[in-house]
Structures are given as C-alpha cells and as structure tokens.
Amino acid sequence: MPSQSRVVVLDYGFGNVRSAVRALERVGAQVELTADAHAATEADGLIVPGVGAFAACMAGLRGVRGDQIVDRRLAGGRPVLGICVGMQVMFASGDEHGVRADGLGEWPGVVDRLEAEVVPHMGWSTVDVPVGSTLFSGIEQERFYFVHSYAARSFPLEESVDAQRFAAPLVTWAEHGGRFVAAVENGPLAATQFHPEKSGDAGAELLRNWVASLR
Q1: Which strand (E) or helix (H) includes residue 182?
Q2: Which end of the chain is more exposed for a tag (fewer CB within 10 A), N or C?
Q3: pLDDT by 10s per residue, the chain, length 215
Q4: CB-based contact 93:65 (threshold 8 Å)
Q5: How crowded is residue 197: how many other Cβ atoms within 10 Å of its Cβ?
C-alpha cells in the first residue's frame, strides 16, 4: 500500500482551516495544521488558505514567515496550493479601497474589486478549463463554490511567457460581471479562487487530483 502524501495546511490566522484539513483527510492525505516553518517547507504539499482582506492576510503570512516558506518551496519545485485569498496573495499586489498592498509576487498582476452589479460573488459557478489541466481532470464541466469581492481579472504571465523555453501556465477562468481568474496551474504552484473544500464532490475530486500529483 503506497504511503500517504504529507500535506501541511499553513496556520497563519486567516482561512477556514478546519474544513480544509477535513477535506484533505477525506481524499487520503496525511494532514498537519501548523505554522512550523520546517514542517511547512518539508511536507509533500503545502496549502495556503485565506479569507478576508488581502493586506491583512499578507501581514499574517509574513508573521509566520509564510512568504519565505512559499518562496523556498517553489524554488525547490515543491508543490503549493493557494485557496481563495491564498491564491490572490500569489500575485504582485492587491488593491482594496484604493490602497495597494504588496503580494508574494509569484505572478505579475493585480487583484482588485470585481466589476459587477452584485458584489460579493457568492455561490456556485461553472469555470472555463484549459486543455491539459491536471487539477480539473474529470470535473471540467462541474460547478464550484465562490465567495469573494476581489479577483485577478487578467493574467499577464499567460501572455508574456516564452513558449519555446517554458510551459505556459494553465489558467482557468470564470465570469461574474466580467472574466476573472478562477484557477492557475503553473509548475509546482497551483491555486483556486473558489473553495474546493466547500465545493462538494467536485471540490473533493479537485483536491484528490492535487494530492495524487504529489506522489
């Protein structure tokens, strides 16, 4: 019997961490909820959850050296999955109420307020999945649960990557008053704007796909 993949859910004070832990355990991962830098760096996979304000999440991450942990893992090709604001902070910056805050800068681009009649975007939405996605394998037509007021509405790296030298990121899109980034798969770094842990069977299958990719 193959050993379980070891996953750390980073505990930095922002995120519905218990539901993420339970969801990962249900799909067969060995899960630890911790802010310990060594455990977070050495695990097979790292989950960066997040709810609330971009700037506050960044402050919380820096408080547990989460910025260094993510950077170190990605430099070594070790998988990271960001969820909701945990995805947003992977971008260069976030703009909330006219105040710009620096993100982790793993991707260029800015996270700002959705331009829609109803904000926040709350509920189940379909997504437009690119060919070749591992995260969405077998669930390309499913709906996922979103709750957010901000998002990345462009993905500059998708246009600027040198396709002859590097594999282009796989970007999944959704619509709410306009197009926004719903998920990204970019080498060891993946992220979802929606909450897979709240997305029923489809979300469980996405987490199962990610955990399976850790082996």
Answers
A1: strand 179-186
A2: N
A3: 457 999 999 999 887 799 999 999 999 999 999 999 999 999 999 999 999 999 999 999 999 999 999 999 999 999 999 999 999 999 999 999 888 999 999 999 999 999 999 999 999 999 999 999 999 999 999 999 999 999 999 998 766 554 444 578 999 999 999 999 999 999 999 999 999 999 999 999 999 999 999 98
A4: no
A5: 27
CA separation for the pair 131, 30 (Å, rounded): 30
Q: Which of 121, 148, 176, 195 is an active site residue?
A: 195
Element (H, E) at 40: helix 37-42
Q: Is 38 an annotated catalytic residue?
A: no
Q: Which helix (H) or strand (E) holds 141?
A: none
- Contact, 10 vs 66, CB < 8 A? yes
- Length of the chain equals 215
**CB burial class (10 A; 0-12, 13-18, 19+) of residue 56?**
middle
Does residue 106 have an active-site annotation? no
Residue 197 annotated as catalytic: yes
Tokens of 107: 């991707």
3 state SS of 89: coil
Q: What is the pTM of this model?
A: 0.95
Distance, in Å, from the CA atom of 142 to the CA atom of 148, rounded to the nearest integer, reads: 19
Of 57, 84, 142, 148, the active-site residue reads: 84
